[in-house]
Specification:
The longest helix is centred in the first third of the chain and has 13 residues. The protein contains ten helices and 17 strands. The model has no long low-confidence stretch (mean pLDDT about 95). The chain has three domains: about 60 residues, Alpha-Beta Plaits, CATH 3.30.70.2580; about 80 residues, Met-10+ protein-like domains (GMP Synthetase, Chain A, domain 3, 2-Layer Sandwich), CATH 3.30.300; about 170 residues, Rossmann fold, CATH 3.40.50.150. The protein has about 325 residues and is an alpha/beta fold. It has a seven-stranded mixed β-sheet, with helices on both faces. Helix 6 links the parallel strand 11 and strand 12.
Amino acid sequence: MDRPCVRVPREAGERTRQELAAAGLLDDEYEIVVADGTLYLPVTDPEAAAKSYEVAYRDVSPHDRQQTPADLLGFDPSYERLGDVAIVDEDDPERAATVADAILDSDLPVRAVVDRASKVKGDLRVRDWTVVATDDDAETDGPATETVHREYGFEYLLDLSRVYFSPRLATERHRVTEQVDADEQAVDMFAGVGPFAIPMAARGATVVGVDLNPAAIEYLRENARRNGVADRVTAVEGDVRDVAADYAGWANRVVMNLPHSADEFLDAAVTLASDDCVLHYYDIQHEDDPFGPGERAIRATATDYDVDVLTRHVVRSYAPHELNVCLDVRLSR
């Protein structure tokens, strides 16, 4: 069966395997193939993997040792895993139950299967979920929607029903946080459970994470403790437009990952910025001009700064003819 694979020289195989596993991109349902000194590592998201690696399609075999949901169903169901929770998106409750039972009966390390019951909604960016099936033998006291997600060596406790989280942005978060220096002061304006804030703190930065959602702030504090960076992360519950004045001129780096409405918070970002500050501005725009609206909005707001666009980066396709993009911008007063 042809599957998307990252293709690397054999000597880079183990390092690449670890990187893909840490990013949640390694498809452990399929065998790794070696051919002519080249390694082919199956991946779950070829679009995300292609940001950093060469992706090729190749015939690879399922692991003999693991029984998959497809083995039990006779077809390949669509699902994704977040920690030990499997997520399906089925309109038919009967089909959802059939798929969920197969996932739990397979060899996947899954203790609950949930179905999307709404789109992301409200200022807190959460969605409704239907718990389709759970493993009665699982040893946990938490709700079915709570899990631990591991990404690039960090772990994040979160509850899907209470916070927003997208595992598909792991590669992008890693791209940004790898730019951080140890002496920086950084603000994540929409911090969630900490997937930007915690890796930045782990690199030695002092980080302020702000979120309107009290549950997200609760998990951010817990995750900072889990990852050994609680002394460098300050979690603030509230609207960052109200919080910004408390940190005016403080930040060397600002993350604005609220792509549908980041432009409404640019005044706060400029307030936070020090005399020399890198801004990571996320946007969703039409493919004909994906970067122009954001760049114009930044220049119109940061009038006391020289604005230098360092990177115009496409994160992923969002919808037909729409792109999720990031502008990495240096503001110099």
